[in-house]
Every structure is written in C-alpha cells, then in structure tokens.
Design goal:
By secondary structure, the protein is of the alpha+beta class. It folds into 2 domains: 23-165, Electron Transport, Fmn-binding Protein, Chain A (Pnp Oxidase, Chain A, Roll); 174-213. It has 8 helices and 7 strands; from the N terminus they run αααββββαββαβααα. The chain has helices at 15-19, 27-31, 39-47, 94-101, 130-134, 160-165, 182-189, 197-213, and strands at 50-56, 62-68, 75-78, 81-85, 104-110, 117-127, 146-157. Strands 2-1-5-6-7-4-3 form a 7-stranded antiparallel β-sheet, covered by helices on one side. A hairpin with a 6-residue loop joins strand 5 (104-110) and strand 6 (117-127). The chain is globular, with a radius of gyration of 21 Å. 15% of the residues are buried. This is Pyridoxamine 5'-phosphate oxidase family protein.
Length: 216
C-alpha cells in the first residue's frame, strides 16, 4: 500500500533547492514581462469575457475569485491602469475586503478558444467615481464600485496548461447533471434537513430565477 504521508526529507524548502530541479529559465521568458499594457495586452483584455482575481486576506491567506461579463468588460484607462466593474454577487466581499487590507493583486485573463492566457500583477484601489462607473453600466445599471489596478507587470502565458486540460474542447466537456445542483451541495454542506424532490426542484428554480434577476 502506498504511503501518502508528506515526508519532511522530500519537501522543497528554499528557492535554491527549487531551481536545482529545473532547467535554467529561457531569456525570452524573462524579457517578455512588461511593466505596462502594450497593444497586444490591450487587445487581449478587450476580447476577454472572464478573469480570475487573486488577493490575500489580512493574515496572509490566499484567495481567488472569478469575474465575468461580455468581452471588453475590463476598461483600460491608460497603459498603466485598468478598471474592473464589481457586479452583484453574494455580498461576502472577500476580494474587496482583502484589497483594502492589502492592495497587491494578480489577474488571469481568459478568452474562450484561446489557449494562451494573460497575466497582470499590480496594486489595486477601490473607486466610487460616478464618471468611471457610468462607463461600465449594463442595462443602465452602473456598478456600485470598481477595482482600479495599477499595472506592475504583464505578460502572456503559454498554452500548455489549457492544452493539457483540453478546456475548450467540447468533446471533453463534462455533463453538469453528473453532480448535484449547487443548492443541493450547499444544503449538504450546511447540514440542512433533507428536502423532498418537489422542494428541491423549487429551490433550484429559485436559484436560477435569482441569477436572472440579480445579474446586474
């Protein structure tokens, strides 16, 4: 039987030990990192309908949250600044609270059908400027605030991860029905009393209606 415990003697504890495991980084991989949004980065952002935003809690715990909207929902104000609208969510405000405590932020932009991704690292601030918020209104509804990111570094990431995962290949898409609905999962995780099938159907339908009503 395989011993699956983490053994201290195999843990990599410093950068020198880490780098000894890998070939030297290619010079081009270092030089591709820019400190501003060039035309290619701007074009990528304009096409992207989805990003992940990485933040840190005040006590140093990592957090990643998705953001999505029609392509071009992230506004590039200039070659050092971009603006992300904050759309209605569950009001936990994890990312926003984290950014108040620690403005360091990492962004990963994805475009359906593109195997490359765009990474942007920088520092964030939260703004309620009505002129900026109006620029990002959907259905005449402006966001309550936006995340303004000052860019420190930006670079395109190669296609290997998405090609390994076959993320965009319909032949490898999984059937959502093979897992319980989100409502069922949350009820199980919160130890809620069992629900009969009719009640579960009503709760699932209510969630879908809430999605439609509160998208913006």
């Amino acid at each position: 039987m395989t011993d699956t415990r983490l053994k201290p003697e195999f843990l990599v504890r410093d950068e020198a030990a880490l780098r000894a495991l890998f070939p030297k980084v290619h010079d081009l991989a270092l030089r591709k990192c820019l400190d501003r949004l060039d035309p290619h980065a701007r074009d990528f952002i304009a096409r992207a309908p989805f990003l992940c935003i990485g933040t840190q809690t005040p006590d140093g715990m990592a957090d990643v949250s998705p953001r999505g909207d029609p392509p071009g929902f992230v506004t590039v104000l200039d070659d050092k600044t971009l603006l992300i609208p904050d759309r209605p969510g569950n009001n936990r405000l994890d990312s926003l609270s984290n950014l108040i405590a620690n403005p360091v932020v990492g962004l990963l932009f994805l475009i359906p059908g593109f195997d490359e991704t765009l990474r942007v690292n920088g520092r964030a601030a939260l703004t309620r400027d009505p002129n900026l918020l109006r620029m990002m209104a959907v259905n005449d509804r402006a966001p309550r605030l936006a995340i303004a990111v000052t860019v420190d570094e930006v670079f395109l990431h190669c296609a290997k991860a998405l090609r390994r995962s076959r993320l965009w290949d319909p032949a490898h898409h999984q059937d959502r029905a093979q897992m319980p609905t989100l409502t069922r999962i949350i009820l199980d995780q919160t130890a809620a009393p069992p629900q009969d099938p009719a009640e579960m159907a009503r709760l699932d339908a209510g969630l879908e209606q809430a999605y439609r009503d509160s998208m913006y």
